[in-house]
Amino acid sequence: MRSRFTAFKLRRHDYLINTIQARKVSLTEESFDTRINWLGLKVITSKKGLQNDENGTVEFVAFFQEAEEENSKRFHQLHEESSFKKMKGHWIYIDGKPLKDIKLERNDQCFCNSDKKFKKCHGG
């Protein structure tokens, strides 16, 4: 999951294409929205997904801004439970179930890894 988030953040669309289960619709570089700025990732839970497992799930929240919001404190959440399957020794994204946004507490560390509390950063 972390490797896929990093690929989104770094716009490594080739990695994303290579780590998703083949579907009827083929993905290309143009399939990805380049106006998105990925800010942070919070893994909530994971089930299975260890070296000897064949499948696993990860519940996570990815925080992002759209390009026109870059200098604001406005942000969005992608909260999902993702399913993965190991194929030929590599973890492949199968699908995801969208979940409701999480509530962020004012005194939590900000999701953008600024080392500031949420209330002093994106929550202020």
For the record, what CATH class applies?
Answer: Alpha Beta
Low-confidence stretches: none
CATH fold-type name:
Nuclear Transport Factor 2, Chain: A
Shape-level CATH architecture? Roll
What does the radius of gyration come to? 16 Å
The portion of residues assigned to helices is: 10-25%
Question: Strand percentage, roughly?
Answer: 35-45%
End-to-end Cα distance: 29 Å
Task: Estimate nothing, just give the exact number of structural domains.
Answer: 1
The arrangement of helices and strands along the chain is HHEEEE
Name the shape in a single word: globular
Task: List the strand order in the largest sheet.
Answer: 1-2-3-4
Give the mean pLDDT.
89
Sketch the major β-sheet: 4 strands, antiparallel
Number of DSSP helices?
2
Quantity of strands, as a count: 4
Q: Give me the secondary-structure category.
A: mainly beta
Key terms for this structure?
124 residues, mainly beta, Nuclear Transport Factor 2, Chain: A, 2 helices, 4 strands
Could you walk me through the main structural features you see in this protein, from its secondary elements to its overall organization?
The structure is a single chain. The chain is mainly β. It has one domain (2-120): Nuclear Transport Factor 2, Chain: A (Roll), CATH 3.10.450.50. The protein contains 2 helices and 4 strands, in the order ααββββ. It has helices at 2-9, 13-18, and strands at 36-48, 55-66, 76-87, 90-98. The chain has a 4-stranded antiparallel β-sheet with strand order 1-2-3-4. The longest helix has 8 residues, at 2-9. The protein is globular, with a radius of gyration of 16 Å. 10% of the residues are buried.
